[in-house]
Write a structure and sequence with these properties.
Mean pLDDT: 88
Strand content: 5-15%
Structural class: mainly alpha
Number of domains: 2
Radius of gyration: 20 Å
Largest sheet: 2 strands, antiparallel
Number of helices: 5
Shape: extended
Order of helices and strands: HHHHHEE
Helix content: 40-55%
Oligomer: single chain
Length: 131
């Protein structure tokens, strides 16, 4: 902002409704991301402690440090480079087509979908209320 002081009104309006509690909650969530990464990596019972540490080291930069937004992309190439056990999908394969149709049905349902061991569960999105 010091380089562009004329942007102050824009930033002030964007941050007008942000409270100190929200800032603290955001900082706490960011501080926990490393723990969540380790927890996710440890969830594979076939992964050794050394593998977990190696993957955590390889994934911290591209997943936690580098992204500037929540919507950052981490695709096959990045996962493969980091050492994750991934396979490139063939969009012309039957498996891809079946998964694409399933995703399209989920999207068209306009519902949240949770996959379980035995069945899928569809739940409506929470109702938005006008303020």
């Amino acid at each position: 902002m010091q380089e562009s002081p004329d942007t102050y009104p824009l930033y002030a309006s964007l941050l007008a409704d942000v409270t100190a509690l929200q800032v603290q909650q955001a900082r706490a969530a960011l501080a926990r991301t490393g723990d969540l990464l380790l927890e996710a990596l440890r969830s594979n019972p076939d992964r050794s402690a050394d593998d977990v540490e190696r993957l955590a080291e390889a994934l911290t930069e591209p997943l936690i440090v580098a992204p500037k937004s929540h919507g950052a992309i981490f695709g096959y190439d990045e996962a493969h480079t980091a050492g994750l056990p991934v396979r490139a999908a063939d969009p012309s394969s039957t498996q891809w087509q079946v998964l694409w149709r399933l995703w399209a049905k989920y999207f068209a349902s306009n519902m949240r979908v949770y996959e379980g061991r035995r069945a899928s569960k569809l739940m409506p999105w929470p109702q938005q209320t006008a303020e």
